[in-house]
Specification:
It is a single chain. This protein is an alpha+beta fold. The protein has one domain. It has three helices and three strands. Strands 1-2-3 form a three-stranded antiparallel β-sheet, with helices on one face. It is globular. It starts with 14 loop residues before the first helix and ends in a 9-residue tail after the last helix.
Amino acid sequence: MSVSKFEDRIYLSTREEVEKMDKDLRRLLKAITAAGYVVVINRKGHPEVYTADGVWITTFAGTPSDHRAHLNALAPLKRRGFRWPPRR
């Protein structure tokens, strides 16, 4: 499915869904948004990352089951040049 407009899809983003995420994931998603990507919470509460023109990149687990979950979801972004953790 091609995504041309994010408004065409329905997403539920409640405060409760965001509060379930750990602080590291919230900080990571904030940095991803600052880098120009679009982060959308899907119907099941998982953050999905898209490019500005609507191309899906990856989906993060809202509550990861192991320590590699965020790193595995972050890999496609790193391949596109996103740096995490940021270098000072």
